[in-house]
Specification:
By secondary structure, this protein is mainly alpha-helical. It has 7 helices and 4 strands, in the order E-H-E-H-E-H-E-H-H-H-H. The protein has one domain.
Length: 160
């Protein structure tokens, strides 16, 4: 979970949004995210990004949504489940298999594995970690919805 900078004329709206999220997702870590244009794949790259920005994680989408929120004077926060922690590098097969739309290009994954079968254990671990992250994200969504949000987006904006 992370919040952007003050996105409206009143930072109190932003703080209230973050307070709601922190109360409803008490196990979540809170901090800044780094918006990046490409996958941060290696542990070395992740450490360098952390040292440069202080961010607790990076993603390729949220900074775009933040710009839209800022343009419209809306408070902004993201809730993400991170599957590849900072200590682990992603195997090449995972990188070549990612499609821009979030899908998986299985042919590219299999070609990468054929070239370097030794990456299979890391690829399996990456898949397991992604599944755990998706489950955590779903649990967080359910927790927010159970707190009374029939329409999650409208509810969160209404509480601020």
């Amino acid at each position: 979970m992370a919040g952007g900078e003050d996105l409206s004329s009143s930072s109190s709206r932003q703080e209230r949004l973050l307070a709601v999220l922190r109360a409803r997702l008490p196990d979540a870590r809170s901090g800044a995210f780094a918006g990046v244009e490409r996958i941060v794949a290696t542990a070395t790259e992740k450490a360098a990004l952390r040292a440069q920005t202080g961010a607790i994680a990076a993603d390729m989408e949220s900074h775009v949504a933040e710009r839209v929120a800022r343009r419209h004077g809306l408070p902004f926060a993201i809730v993400r489940a991170v599957s590849d922690d900072a200590q682990r590098s992603l195997p090449p097969a995972a990188l070549v298999g990612m499609r821009p739309d979030g899908g998986v290009h299985l042919g590219a994954v299999f070609r990468s594995l054929a070239k370097n079968p030794a990456q299979l254990p890391a690829l399996i671990a990456t898949g397991r970690d992604a599944e755990k992250a998706f489950r955590a994200l779903l649990r967080g969504f359910e927790r927010l919805r159970a707190a009374g949000a029939g329409d999650l987006d409208a509810h969160l904006l209404d509480v601020v």
